Amino acid sequence: MLGEKKYTTDSVSGMALRKMEPAAKTYGILVHLFQKAVEGKAVSVEQMTVTDALGTMVKKQ
Known about the structure:
Structural class: mainly alpha
Oligomer: single chain
Distance between the termini: 28 Å
Low-confidence stretches: none
Shape: elongated
Largest sheet: none
Mean pLDDT: 76
């Protein structure tokens, strides 16, 4: 929903789904790392940096 309007789509192309995959994986990793940090657990800087993650999410293909 966007405001009062609801938008839908009948289908999503395979190409669009393939391009979303790296961002979805990166988002999952970020959520996992943030959850560990909130719980007070150690988060290795070798796992992934926020800069790397955001770069993966927004890079043009």
